[in-house]
Amino acid sequence: MNWLSDSQGVVLTAYHPSSKDGVLVGNNAKQREEAALTSRRSGQYRMNHESSKKLIEKPPFDRSSSQDSLDDLSLEDYWTELENIKKSRENRHEEQEEVVVKEPDEGELEEEWLKEAGLSNLFGDCTGDSQESMVFLSTLTRTQTAAVQKRFETVSQTMRKKNKQYQIPDVRDIFAQQRESTEKVPDGSELDSVRTNENKCKGKQDLASNLGISEKNSPYLPEDAPVSETDINLEISFAEQAANMKETSKELLENKEEYNSLPNFRLPKDKTGNTRIGDLAPQDMKKVCCLALIELTALYDTLGIELKHQKAVKIKTKDSGLFGVPLSVLLEQDQKKVPGTRIPLIFQKLISRIEEGGLETEGLLRIPGAAIRIKNLCQELEAKFYEGTFNWESVKQHDAASLLKLFIRELPQPLLSLEYLKAFQAVQNLPSKKHQLQALNLLVILLPETNRDTLKALLEFLERVIDNREKNKMTMKNVAMIMAPNLFMCPGLSNKPNEQGEFMMAAGTASIMHFLIKYQKLLWTIPKFIVTQVRKQNSENHKKDKKDKAVKKLLKKMAYDREKYEKQDKNPSDADVPQGVIRVQAPHLSKVSMAIQLTEELKASDVLARFLSQESGVVQALKKGEVFLYEIGGNIGERCLEDDTYMKDLYQLNPNAEWVIKSKPS
Hints:
Blueprint: H1 2-6, H2 29-39, H3 49-56, H4 65-68, H5 76-92, E1 100-101, H6 108-116, H7 131-138, H8 142-161, H9 171-179, H10 204-210, E2 215-217, E3 228-231, H11 238-248, H12 250-254, E4 264-266, E5 275-276, H13 282-302, E6 312-314, H14 327-337, H15 345-356, H16 371-384, H17 397-409, H18 421-426, H19 433-446, H20 449-467, H21 469-472, H22 476-488, H23 499-518, H24 520-523, E7 525-526, H25 528-547, H26 549-569, E8 581-585, E9 594-597, H27 604-614, H28 618-621, E10 628-633, E11 636-640, H29 647-653, E12 658-662
Parallel strand pairs: 3-4, 8-12
Antiparallel strand pairs: 1-6, 2-3, 5-7, 8-9, 10-11, 10-12
Protein name: Rho GTPase-activating protein 18
Subcellular location: Cytoplasm
Pfam family, one: Ubiquitin_RHG40_C
């Protein structure tokens, strides 16, 4: 295909572990392909008719579920956007710096994987200091354990071949130790969410409930939603759900969703409160990311999809400016202007400019700005943006939209990160939409913080555009097709799919983009089973610490001193809290703590409302949403509670926690 070789770095990359994954078939396939062909301005994207016929003749069971939700699409907007991108690059006459991805040596990927999973203590020079890793391993599910064991065995074999001087522990010894750990958390809470082996023989009805496929009628049907809502199970490991489905009920695995519908997955209610990205302290979030990587790998292993990381070993980037600058460099520049900002200022301003023109504009995001004007605006922005002298009134709405997409495309590494771009692309090969959603949830957690925050701002903006679809004619499908090539192309990568692969890539990435927009609230939720594993790790680590002789001696001395002086020094407000009562503090807002009786119906929002109503002065002026109730200590580092959290249920889960009202860090 000539357009690929002529283009300055316009490359679609696809990852297909199996040649039979992702095949388009169906009665309307030919009609859809013909519609797509008529939309193309030249023969650059034309698939030959023989290939099309071969695709149509494929049996239904080879069909990729990522294309099911796009069956009625011609992909016209995708191809048009791709051609606009090509013209934009040609007009700018700029060569994209090639990203060189090193082909890893044997065992190198696995060694890097273990480091990212927080398990580097299992090998290398520090194998003796592996207590924390043993605790970590003790909290893993059987599928997670299998994923770790597989990578560790590969690293061990590689090290033995290379005659490493330090001792390499036997994999059987390591996993024997972790199997000896108890399953019960010291504070009394059980890891029911990861003990799936006990549930394997409960029958198909119980299994269906565990897998989150119970349905309820929905009073409102958003675009493309079926007549029901489906809860997504966040309490049981995704890989365990997939393994149970494969082992116990092949019928459930084969019972796919309707081809032309995208399930209206719903975030389930949890009495102890759902945990959003950003709600946890950094030390706990680090554990979440390690567990998410292991869980994602276990899920892909269970479903037979190969998951490979890739890293840039050579990439030249600008250290200043706006376009083609790494997100980290941009934020460093921006935080000098606006301390605490988490999203690049130019990104925020472009979105703001688009919205100033009104989101009802027909063809918003679809209609490109004039190429020469875009080029001139880029140069002017580079020179004047940080000086504050750029005239934003000169930027038309379609120009601002084109600049926003250009900003995303010209990032030195993809917004979805070079490391996980292939994993995002591989989502289209997973066998069901539920599995795809689960994988995307874990991938969002794994993104670097700056990438994740910027992606969230983008998806929220796209959702606002879609909310005005009656006037701007930009449906969820239209927006997904237009944004997919902007997010999924990595110009420096040399992977060049054939014509069939290109078409599969278009449909698959548009489907993934659709998921990212539609389910963004769910995707930014940390699964409960991972939070439960973090709680167990914290509890086990506290338990180990208390066994340390030096600590025990210090605690004994402290206890003696406290017993000696607590009677005379004890303040009535600090007295032991009666059972069934929690004491809520707001050290930065009030000197007085508040005792609150726990009831079955008491929620976090009730605690906040009571606190704000009783205080005066600065506190009284605070509004809902400016301060939050936090669970601190016990088996969690720190966790911001959502309003619907039932306090008695959470207290039973973490009785040693303190309850603090404060604002969220910026």
